[in-house]
């Protein structure tokens, strides 16, 4: 019996972290619900959403071919640098960590739901910068001149 075999995701139970796998080279036999192994899930709850038809490797238990674990998927070709960790999502957004730099490159938006502290320089660029409901690009105070002009007060 083969302990490790390749198949394709046949159906998914995302809520319970399980999937069924079809083995095309074994007369299209479909596995029972298999646990999907993820790195470090006991410490920080990683979750991955596999897709029907996606190739996966399965570890079967001896004498129990219907029981096993989905080990993961074959790595795709990539243009990452040595030492870089990168995850690219199906919509093209990604995050990357390399040589002390974390790069977030979402397709549309980053949402931070927490108090945020920046220790270091902050560079902001873009077309609209807001502070709460105030557009900081166009916000004005009456009686105050812009730039380095002095509007009153001590000289």
Question: Can you characterise this structure?
Answer:
InterPro entries: GpV-like_apex, Vgr_OB-fold_dom_sf. This protein has 155 residues and is mostly beta strands. The protein folds into two domains: 4-72, OB fold (Dihydrolipoamide Acetyltransferase, E2P) (Beta Barrel); 85-135, no CATH class. The protein is 3% helix and 35% strand. The chain contains one helix and eleven strands, in the order E-E-E-E-H-E-E-E-E-E-E-E. The protein has one helix at residues 41-44, and strands at residues 4-13, 18-23, 29-30, 34-36, 55-61, 64-72, 85-88, 94-98, 101-105, 130-131, 134-135. The strands form three sheets. The chain has a five-stranded mixed barrel with strand order 1-2-4-6-5. A hairpin with a 5-residue loop joins strand 7 (85-88) and strand 8. The N and C termini lie far apart (88 Å).
